[in-house]
Amino acid sequence: MRASKTQVPHQSVGGYTVPFSINEVPPTGKIATTEAVDPSRSRTERVGDGVAAGLAAVQIVCLVASGLVILVEIVFRYVLRLPFSSSIDILTLLFGWLIWLGIPRAVWRQNSPKLGISRSYPRILANAAPPAALGATISYFVINCWSYTQLFQSQSQSTVATLGVPYYTISLAVLIGSALAIVLSIMRMVQSFRLADLVPFVIGCALVAATTALPFPPQAVAIFLIVVLMLLDCPIAVALGVAGQAMIVNGQFDSLSAVSGQLLVPVSNIALLAVPMFMLMGGLFANSRLAGDLSAFVKSIFGWLPGGMGVATVATSAVFANVSGSAVADTAAIGSVYIPEMIAHGYKRTSAAAVQAAAGVIGVVFPPAVAMIVFASVASISVVPVFEAVIVPGLLIAVVLAVVAILTAKSSGDVRNERFRISNVGRSLPRALPILIIPIVLDGGIFSGIFTPSESGAVSIVVAAIIVASMRGASWLQVRKSLVQAVDTTTLVMFIMTAVAVLNYGLITSGLAGQITAALSIAGHSALLALLLINLIFIVAHIFMETSPAILVLVPLVLPAALAAGVSPLQLAAVVAVNSTIGAILPPVGVGLFVASQIAGVEPRQVVPRIIPYVLASTVILVLVTLIPDLSLALPRWLS
Q1: How many Å apart are CA 113 and CA 231, to the nearest integer?
Q2: Which tens digit of pLDDT belongs to each residue from 46-62?
Q3: Which SS3 state, helix, strand or coil, does residue 159 take?
Q4: What is the pTM of this model?
Q5: How many C-beta neighbours within 10 Å does residue 633 have?
Q6: Using an 8 Å Cβ cutoff, are 454 and 275 in contact?
Q7: N or C: which end of the chain has fewer CB within 10 A?
Q8: Mean pLDDT, the chain, whole residue set
Q9: Calpha distance 621→361 (Å, rounded)
Q10: Of 238, 265, 292, which residue is a domain's last?
């Protein structure tokens, strides 16, 4: 558990392995999407890897079964004209197990988001941080298990009416997942344990136990725990969950059952099943040759412009964002095609990485953006108007990024264009058409009201699978990789959501949420001042957190003040989305920057100066969306 000074640390985001600090040099070459098999690994590591692989297999079964249930539900509604009364309970059961079996896998693989700053500490602190963080993590899951034993007593006599099974059939996933996380964490500790690790490990355990068992002032202890645990490089989900546990229990052990109760809240939100559906669909295209087919078509249209390859990168990323719903998947899939192309056309590696990093984050904005699904869930509003609210801001971002790509290419003088040939358009269009069908099916189903987002995702997966199979665009290995990426990404989002549910409940019961809302009420009834404050809060938050964690933590706190000031939640969604496109490409946690830099084979810090013009362009759109509500409200109003 010793902190290494030479090893380059990486973080897996949605199955794509990326470095987490701009002070480290990423390896060149392709993005790593599978776990390496190393025969020199210890027996403990091999067993842990085997358990993690088994958990992934069960998760995939749950995901596929969920998709089938959704499709059957559609058939019952539109073909048989009959209700499928048990569908929601079946989906809740499958979704709960999908998430809670993924959490121990994330703990074992150490790919849950964290700050990643402890390596920069003095040696004695850098060596102490990992065992202390592990102790806190194990204690968090121990409290989850303990909490479940109390919750079980109240659930043992109740049944799920539509299925006729005990209710704990669903909630048992919390106990099993937490227990497996404890076992895998202990295995991770044992394989590299040193005697010097014992003291910080015990301190980490004691920190969580004491703050939960003793009646400290809940507001102060929550802030203390979040800061300390994040500085120790605990997973963000663990830091937030521990703070929530401490506020809920606060020395009153009869309140323990509320912890497990809150851990189940996000799982019961079936709308979030859209997340794995969209991630799987995006993965099928990202891991197949179809992303290259789309790129060839778009390049044939825009390649003749000054900086045409950069413009094509932006345009292709915008189209692909309508398929993937993820900035990471967008950047990885399109970047693997366009970054080498841009370099071949005279772009410097840093410039090519900057263009792709800026273009890839359009996936945060355009439907079916996972970030916007998370926003709608947290804000308790329908996801469809949220998708509608971000379309115009997304288009504006795409336009200004394309303009910047043209201007920067002109100023460099080294970038070559392609000649426009109608034959190239005609040759590439047939292979691109199937991909262009997906956004029509997806967006058409959602915006017409025919399908819910989850149903639209399931139908689109079927269409995507038919397209990929008929065009022989992917091997079984690539399909399996797409499935693993989908469940891993969903786990990372939902792991944080479960912890945030606990934290938010603690904030409410302790009164801290009200105090934060009252502090934000300085904006009074000024919508503009409220949005300016919220922008500032999110800009600062993106220094420490990625998009989804920032939305999960902050939106429940700022939403009441925004509503009181007269801000529409749809305008708030657009402001948060555009703000997040900036945070997603800036250090220290801008994953879009790291993925693009890794593909280009350059250090992220070398790309930062090249990305500034794109950041400034996005900032202009952020200002416009903040000042002009109709940029986000006009389309939902027109479509309603």
Answers
A1: 13
A2: 888 999 999 999 999 99
A3: strand
A4: 0.82
A5: 18
A6: no
A7: C
A8: 82
A9: 14
A10: 265
